[in-house]
Amino acid sequence: MRYNFVTSLLTLIGIVSLPLICDAQIKKPTIMLLPSDNWCAQRYFTQSFDNQGSIEKVSDYQRAFTEDIELPQVISKIGGVLTSMGYGLKDAEMEIKSIKVKQAEDNAMSSKTSSASIAESPLDVLKRRMKSDIVIQLWWNITKDHAGKIVSFSLEAFDSYTNKRIATATGNSKPSTEAIPVALERAVKDNIKEFDKQLDKWYDDQKKNGREIVLTVRCWDDWDNDLETEYDGEELTDCIQQWIRQNTVNSSFNLSDGTESFAQFEQVRIPLKDKNGKAMDARAFATSLRKHLQKAPYNIASKVIIRGLGEAIIILGEK
Question: Which residue from 75, 89, 100, 251 has the least number of CB within 10 angstroms?
Answer without folding.
Answer: 100
